Amino acid sequence: MTKVDFNSLDIRRKAVDQVGVEERCARFKSRSIKKDAKIQGLKMALNMIDLTTLEGKDTEGKVRQLCHKASHLHYSYDGLPTVAAVCVYPSFVKLAKSLVSNKGIKVASVATAFPSGQSFLKYKIAETEEAVQEGADEIDMVISRGKFHQGEYSYVFDEIASVKEACGKARLKVILETGELGNLDAVYYASQIAIEAGADFIKTSTGKIKPAATMPVSLVMLEAIRDHYFRTGKMVGMKPAGGISNAKLALHYLIMVKETLGEAWLNNQWFRFGASSLANDLLKQLVKQESGMYQSANYFALD
Amino acid sequence: MATRENSNLEVMKTYKLFIGGSFPRTESGRYYPIRKKNGDLLANVCLSSRKDFRNAVVAARKAQSAWAGRSAYNRSQIIYRIAEMLQQSEDSLVQEMVSLGYTPKNAKEEFDYSVDYLVHYSGWCDKFSQMHSTVNPVASSHFNFSNPEPMGVIGAFAAERRALIGVLEAFVPAICGGNTVVLLASHKLPTCSITLAEILAISDVPGGVVNILTGEREELLSHFTSHMDVNAFQIWDASKEESFVIDQNSTENLKRVRLYKSSIRTRLSPYRILDLQEVKTTWHPIENISGSGASY
Description:
Chain A is an alpha/beta fold. Chain A is 45% helix and 11% strand.
């Protein structure tokens, strides 16, 4: 792969209209989705989930449980899709792969000294390569926010490009950790850098920092994707992660994607939710649509 | 001619709902008027929808384990605190009851009884469980004991004709035993329930432990009784039609159902607390029965 010089690229800082973004987001929340459309939306959201466990206390047992949940979402509801992927730490990739690869579920691994990203590039690359070797279909990397704040944008760019190279065939999701970037202008700029450096997906957050995914931040990232698509004709995926735990909010995100990027992005090839508790809320709402009765957590498996 | 005293513009109070410790309006945007005896408007109150109820159940569920996890002594202190705060609002509440149609004497009587009611149950918080717990004789080498545990989230329809004590009956014994409550106040006399909610909000009662809705029984009954996350349902003065719906819907998650009749001096009894408890029996293995000479 030929190395691209960051300074030769036409990436410009753009001022984002924060008030406008917030008003636009408020409008997404005012759409009313009922009956069949709602059921379709809930199933679609379910199929877009990266079911995630990223805890220091994760054990093999926990990962097994997660993988089982990923492919057996409900004991009696017919015609449910599976989730899109399970997302784990690199050390669990092999195990997860052996459990879900025959079910059409992908295995995503975080890498590059997740969640802080404060390590040496050579280790980040080695970690990525190792995870891919173990069988990861997708790599979720974090950008170096510290370097970004120091204005070393070319470092951030080169790092993403090197990790992308290390990924080989695995798809690369680039986590911007928007909660640490400060403002929407920076979010848009970081999105551009990640996209130009070769990201297959851009992702909001690690889930370790608050605020995690919010609608305004996601909208700005979606617009960066759209602007790139209009310029180059190339699609880039989007993954909001962290803080999306109820079905209603997930439907609002789907509306936002449809109205910003269009139908082409409404599948798990191009859009994902990074979540763990969202799956159960979607299931509760699906069963509620079917039975007419509000559901209790008692009747749904833990993840 | 207007005098200086009565020239002030009357500020009418907005009666909202009480969900999760805050006072939202109904999401449906609907309301209904409450009138004084002479036909003047007393207030517009919220006509709750099933979504308000659903939100209230979510709030109640969220608050339940922390409420049950508090020490019984602390729950007792908090319920006593409600009595203290209620006592200091005597004038305004009695006046409100009079404007709803009570005679001053009846209003005062129900108010005084309400304060006593709170004090009575605050005392039971850390005592009912030893009253209802047992050590059971069994024929194997186990130490076997049973004790009551809170059921979880309780739905309640308060008495229709008791503006204040009706509301208290619907939640005090329940929260005394560590449950959280979603209750629908009297349709005709709802304003005291919201005034009481304002008292709860300054009585150290954690948000979500008591949630109060105003609206129509008929509209909300099937939702209260069919919700899978409501563990028990209690109702005062249910009609025949209502009890039929309750019986039918509550089978879905084997909801416990309690039907009560309202009276001016409602029953004070620790068994009201037990009505909303599950009994848990523990079998604890021991090596040698009666090794120490004890009788169990």
